[in-house]
Amino acid sequence: MNLRLDNTLARQLEKFRTPWKADEVPEPGLVLVNRALAGEIGLDLSGCDDAALARLFTGQERPGDIETVALAYSGHQFGQFSPLLGDGRALLLGEIVGPDGGRRDIHFKGSGRTPYSRGADGKCALGPALREYVISEAMAALSIPSTRSLAVATTGERVFRETPLPGAVLTRVAASHIRVGTFQYAAAHHGVEEVRRLADYAIARHYPDISGAANPCLALLERVIEVQAALVAKWMCVGFVHGVMNTDNVSIAGETIDYGPCAFLDDYSANAVFSSIDHGGRYAFGNQPAICQWNLIRLAEALGGAVIEADADGEEKMIDLLNGFGQRYEAHWLAGMRAKLGLEGEREGDMALAKALFAAMEGQGVDFTLFFRRLADVPADGDEALHGLFNDPEAIAGWLEQWRARIAEGWGGKAAMDAVNPLYIPRNHKVEEALAAATAGDLAPFEKLVEVVTHPYAEREGLEAFAEPAPESFGKYVTFCGT
Ligand code: AMP
Ligand code: MG
Fold first, then answer.
1. What share of the chain is helix, strand, coil (3-state, %, to 5)?
2. What is the pTM of this model?
3. pLDDT tens across 370-393, in order?
């Protein structure tokens, strides 16, 4: 093993972390390691047997005796400001610099209580650790910026939720764990100087090309607005519902982070909500762009003092940037939708056509993922298979006419559409089936699911069951936070 870790954040941002160690655990057991990812990030695991990996990935071994830290942050949770959140069950092991020069955090989730645990147990059950693993790896395979999952190891402990469950640690990899909530923490607890210090660090790490900006905090705000607009547009194109878009779950690097109550749409609805606690639908599928903008306004508030200190017109400039979110988002979304719909070239009416599709699908019980695959077959095979997805096929008839007229002017073809519209996503019933088996000791269905959803586009024989909607008996899917 060659695990040389750095710790620039822990060294440079002392006010944002507390040195802390993972709990000792009775019986570390390796569940799985993502060897492809290890290779990508420059982590050489050769010569490590499973026992050594299990110790490493439960935090029992600290390579080079590096100081592990719990990170501090604040956050708006469902609109309410919590001044002190932080890594309540997580630790930053350190940073690894990959062969591509990229610096990435290696981070444990479920490694025990920390000063930020607020009465909770600091633990993670095996099911949710595996759930994050498969969904984050699926997102990465869909080319959606995301934290990645490197390993899952069990601890030999039971964690108590509604029932006792096997305890586990998920090791995740992220561009960094700096969140909107980290800036809120800086502003709320330490003031302008620490906001600037944090911004300088984030810029050096993620956006070095703006390090010479006259107003670094303003330039950083613009970057984060851009990467978040791009990110949420990708979620909307693939039917991903994050479920808990609190400001502590918004990455400054623009990665999808904190896989809790997230899920992929089955039937399309703008109002789709899976989280058991999202009663008002604040984080419903169709609300995600607006909530993203709301979160970016919170970032602007945190950066505001530093922005205005550097420029008397800073406030106006921030407002202009925030008002520009919608346009940036729509541009990313339209580009994504053109590809999904196979529209070659750009026509004035493309945005209206894309929006009209969602109006036509609402309330029709249409499987979001299958719609785009079947649409690609329409020119060769006719409408029938697509119609079969709708409660009332008439609902899509008018839209299909428009789409046909549009692709007559430029169509990328079925292969191009199938190359951007996944066939295999982590379908909720398949995820639950695999997690239940894994929790009972059979990992095979989970490994199979990971293999399937990390190769999402090309249809493969024998995988029909992974492409089908849930059976009626699966019922309404409900997900949970912090499990
Ligand atoms: P999340 O919903 O995962 O974004 O977590 C929100 C906050 O709750 C973060 O500060 C977490 O560290 C904390 N948290 C979630 N689950 C636990 C747990 N089991 N023990 C301690 N803290 C937790
Ligand atoms: Mg969180």
1. 45, 15, 40
2. 0.98
3. 999 999 999 999 999 999 999 999
